[in-house]
Specification:
By secondary structure, the chain is an all-alpha fold. The protein is about 70% helix and about 0% strand.
Length: about 450
Amino acid sequence: MTDGSARPETIETSGEHAEKTPGLVAAFRSMEVDTRLIGMLGALAVIWISFHFWSGGTFLTPRNLWNLSVQTAAVAIMATGMVLIIVSRHIDLSVGSMLAVVGMLMALLQAEILPDLLGFDHPLTWIIALIIGIAFGAALGAFQGAIIAYVGVPSFIVTLGGLLVWRGVAWWMASGRTIAPMDSTFQLLGGGSRGTIGGFLSWVVGIIAAVGIVLLLINSRRTRQRYGFALRPLWADATIGVIGVGVVLGAVGYLNRYFLPPLLAQRRLEEDGQVWPEGGVDIPLGLANPVLIAILVALIMTFISTRISFGRYVFAIGGNPEAAELGGIKTRLTTVKTFALMGGLVGIAAAVQIARLNAAVSGLGQLTELYVIAAAVIGGTSLAGGIGTIPGAVLGALVMQSLQSGMVLVGVDAPLQDIAVGVVLVVAVAIDTFYRRRST
C-alpha cells in the first residue's frame, strides 16, 4: 500500500552506510518521510501559533489543547474508516446523518427503553446500548454497501440519499425531542472531569507508547534485514525514534498540566476518603477517554489496512478494480465490508458524542460528513483511489478541528468558518492532484 512517501535514494545494507547525498531533501529521503506528512505538520504548527497569538495566548494552553483533543476524537474515529472508503474509489456522504440516527437509538435505549426493563443506571445498560449502537451502524453501512456493490448505484447517490433518509429517521425516532440523560457509566466515554484516566495512568500510557515506538523501529529494521530489503541509516531510525518518543512524552506532560478545578478536586479527594490540604492540591485530569478510544481505533485500523488481507484488497481495488477482480478478489463483498466497517466506526463516534453531550438531538452530526471527508483528504487520501494512510487521516482531523476551534475561540462568525473550511478542502484536493501529477 503506497502512501506517497518518497523512497530512499541512499540506503544502508548489511549495517554499512551507502554513499551519502548531502542536503535536507536527501536526509528526508533517507528517513523515508512522507513529504505531505511534513507539510501537514507544518500547516498544523502555523495554525496553532497563529491562533495562539490571535487569541491573546489562549489557544496553546493545556486546557484548550485538552479540549481540542476531546473534540477531535469523534471525527478522527470516523476519518479512519473514510480512508478505506475513499481508497476503494467510493465516498460516504451519510456519516453525519448515520451519527444522528445511531446516537438517537443509543440514547433512547438508555433513557427510555432499558430503564423499563433493567432499571435506571443498571451495570449492563451502557454495554447493551454500545453494542446495539455499533451493530446498528454496521448494519446501516452494510445496507448501503450492498446497494452500491450488487445493485450498481454509485456511492455518491446512495450515501446522498442516506444523508437525507437517516437524518429524517433520527428526527422521527424522537419527534425532534432531546433525549437525556445518558447512563452514568456511559457518560465516561465522552470525557469530562470524570471521563479521564488521571495523571499517573497517562504517564503509564505515554511510556508504553514510547516503548512501542522503539520496538516497532527495531522490529522493522530486523524484518528488512531478514528479507534482504534496504535498510534506513541508523541515524535515521534513531532520529525518528527520538522525535516520536519526545512528541508522545511531551504531549502527555503538557496535557497533564491541565488540573481539575479546586471544587471538583476537593470533592474527588473527599470521595476517596482523603483530607483536602490547606494549600490545595493540583490533580491532573490526564488523557480523556475519547482520546484513548480514538488512538485505539487508529491502531486497529492501521493494522487492518496494512497487515491483513482485507486491507490489502481494499487498496488493490482502489489501485485497479479490474485487475483486482481478475486477481480473484471478491470486490463486491469487500465493498460491503468496507461500508459496514465505516458504519461500525460511526457507531463508536456516536457513543462518544452523545456521552460527551449527555444527550442526543436530531441535529446531531450536521456537516460532520464534511469534516470527516476533509480530514481524510487533508491527511493524504487520494480521491482517485489507491492511496491513503490512517495516521494521515487522524492528523487531518486534528488540523480541521484546530481550524474550527481556533475560529470559535477568536469569535469568527459561523458563515466565515464554513468559508474557511470549504477553502481548505479545495486546497487540499488541489495539492493532492498536483502531487499525483508530479509523481506520475
